[in-house]
Amino acid sequence: MEVEPGAKVVMAERRPDNQDSNWGKFLGLGLEIGIGAGLGYAIGTWLDRKYHWTPWGVTIGTLLGVAAGMYHLIKEALRMNRD
Predict the structure, then answer these.
(1) Domain boundaries, given as residue ranges, for the chain
(2) Measuring CA to CA, which residue among 25, 33, 34 is closest to residue 69?
(3) Which secondary structure element, helix H or strand E, spans residue 63, and what is its range?
(4) 49: alpha, beta or left, given left = phi > 0 and alpha = psi -120 to 50?
(5) Where does the pLDDT of residue 43 fall: very low under 50, low under 70, confident under 90, or very high at 90 and above?
(6) What is the DSSP letter of 53?
(7) Does the model's pTM come out above 0.90?
């Protein structure tokens, strides 16, 4: 590309790299909530079968997994807000 002498060259603005990579952080937080709930469900199912607690193991395990994921989500959101 040749530019004539005295001509103005305008460069396109480029977004900072951190704006492009934010989607990965949010995807990771969502996966952590889902994985926490899944692990709670699996452990609850195991407890239900072993100790015959039929609805309570799965219910409490899943709720604890979701609560842990939400705690991590809130903690990460506060950290991102601070930065």
Answers:
(1) 37-83
(2) 33
(3) helix 54-82
(4) alpha
(5) very high
(6) -
(7) no
